[in-house]
Design a protein that fits this description.
Layout: E1 2-6, H1 12-19, H2 28-37, E2 42-47, E3 50-60, E4 63-71, H3 80-94, E5 99-104, H4 109-113, E6 118-129, E7 142-143, H5 149-160, H6 165-173, E8 178-184, E9 187-196, E10 201-209, H7 213-224, E11 231-237, H8 241-249, E12 253-263, E13 271-274
Parallel strand pairs: 4-5, 10-11
Antiparallel strand pairs: 1-2, 2-3, 3-4, 5-12, 6-11, 6-12, 7-8, 8-9, 9-10, 10-13
Helix pairs in contact: 5-6, 7-8
The chain binds coenzyme A.
Amino acid sequence: MFHVEKMKRSDFQFAVQLANTMQWNMTTEDFKFMKNLEPEGCFTLFYGSEPVGIATCISFDKAGWFGNLIVKDAYRGQGAGTLLVNHALNYLKRACVETVGLYAFPPLAGFYEQFGFKPDMDFLVLKGKTASPATAGTLQPRKATKQDFPAVIAFDAQCFGAQRKKLLEPLLSGEGNLCYIAISDHEITGYCAAKAYEETVEVGPLMCPKNRVETTIALLRSVLSKLPNRPVFACAPAEETILLETLIQMGLQEDFRVTRMFLGPAVAKGCTYMAESLERG
Ligand SMILES: CC(C)(COP(=O)(O)OP(=O)(O)OC[C@H]1O[C@@H](n2cnc3c(N)ncnc32)[C@H](O)[C@@H]1OP(=O)(O)O)[C@@H](O)C(=O)NCCC(=O)NCCS
């Protein structure tokens, strides 16, 4: 019989091994970070006493995000995935979340539709080394300082539609991480962050009002120009052609596609938006 438990630190090694059968490039640090953010929202699935699956979720006041769903190959097709999704959705419901988002591999959109998730839009996951140092253009975003973080977090909440302080605070102040902001009339008009891992860098979140294309590109270029010859990952909406062109011009290539889906009203609709990560939105 399958049952779900809270993920323990002693499960991290199993979680990494299982996630990396899908080439998700996860490390124990990733699960440690996730568990610190949402101690009760990371799950391990057991068949008897054997760990056979994982899933994680996070709550940002009224919005939640679901990810890292995987069941060991030999145990698929027996209801285990359904059990993990329902377990996480019940957890988020108890946390008073009104909307749950996720990024689905397109062949699995039908699987998630069974729970009521609806496709919102497609995103491309891109990777590659930045080809050459980019110039920031005429607009010159500046590096955010610690004093800017509260304003960045407030700006993000306006664009995302929920308060992501518990994620953004550690992320913005993390060693080696980057954050550039654009300012107009003393107000933040966009920001782009990047997280530095041991070998790779993940760009995002990027948030900018839809009508500020020049600002969006300047923010992206500012961040990428600080990452010459580093392997970079980014997840951007398929419909944002100028943003994608910029990423491709700077050396990234499409790796795969995912569909953003929501159970409940969609969030993060009014802004140009690059994901923070697939598992947290
Ligand atoms: C996705 C995954 C977790 C599902 O786990 P699972 O244990 O096989 O799921 P379940 O047995 O609960 O399947 C539930 C139902 O969904 C159905 N289903 C699966 N894929 C589907 C699809 N694309 N469209 C519609 N239904 C689908 C199954 O047929 C099953 O229905 P049934 O019970 O009526 O036969 C598993 O396939 C997996 O680990 N995949 C690799 C990792 C991955 O892709 N994760 C998701 C990233 S978005």
